[in-house]
Here is the input.
Amino acid sequence: MISYKEFVDDAIRNYELLPAESNEIYKKYAVSMPLTEMGQEAQPSSMLESDIEGLSRDIAEKTRIKFDAVISGNWAKSFNPHIRISAGDKADVSMLENKLFKSSEDKFAAFANANSRYFISIDAGDGARMKLNLLFVNSGNLPAQVLVKASNSSKIEVFELFISANGSGSLVSVLHEISADKNSEVELNVLHNENRSTRILNLCKAVAGDDAILRANFMYSGGALVKTKGHADSNGINSQVDISEFALGAMDQKFDLGTFIVNTKPYSIARLESGAVLSDSSQCMLKGFAKVEKGAKGCLSKITERGILLSKEAHIDALPDMSIDYSNEVKATHSAATAPMDKEALFYLMSRGLEENAARKMFISAFIAKYIYNMKEGVASAVTMSVMLNKLDGGIPGAMPDVTTSGVWGNR
Here is the structure.
């Protein structure tokens, strides 16, 4: 068995050798994410545990959520026996050897493997049912990994809320690994609402087995720079993978969202929905790639990318791509569209008595709601919608409004 030091040393070697992007097209359309100065020499915040606990209580009151774990740059605490949190040097060696996201595969994964401060493990045994809420508070650099395993016929719903404790600059680096075994169901909902000085690196690798359903929804409102690298494999017969990602940008925020979906087995489903609404001089790149492997008979593969521009200075690059190695009895589509707000739709709403600002907000809210509605878990969708609406009303990235989670969506 490898030691933790050997695991980290191997990750460092790969980080130094691997290119930032392997695909030439995506390399051209990429936002630079400086990581060197945020590596092992970076120190956590000097905020006291009592300060983080006080902020956590305030967020819990605003969101009406009971958090099962709180993770910050200084410390991490679990209040639920199903969530195990290990400091990096105390990580389970067998877990490190069985990782989905290998350091040799990706430069950013290698960085995360070399520098993660915490390993957060969520393991649902056969037939288990659980809903878990995690609060991440970046009070300094926050490198962590979240490892979710759903055993046969289990069901897990996880909501992760990311906030900032202060206005200082920091890096939030989170690597997700999700395994959904036979007949299991996993839903991961992630909302990033950090301050304007935060860099966000979100990595995810997910695998769905036979008859498994795996949903992952990533929503971005805060941060100065967001970069994502995702890989979801519908790797079982009749398996289903649905990935949704959305960015609401303002000021000079930048988003680089890249997700790779794969159909490996017959009658599998793999779908990716990416979207953005941008104002001011914000920018977003939507880079979805789909692959249909040989032998994936009767599968469905679909990429949809949509964007709305609210200013002349805002910019979206929508880059869907697809590779099909097996073309018999396969449904595979990809599409992309970005445009300013629909003037005819706006005129229609105003003709029904709405003022222009109210009509604009209604139009944009309806567009955002399409992505939030992918969150089947009601608390996650209510909190996310509240954050997005607050930002539309002029709130700054990182602001946390009061949330009433009951009755927001009616009967779902």
User: Anything to note?
Assistant: The chain has eight helices and 20 strands. Residues 39-43, 407-412 have pLDDT under 50 and may be disordered.
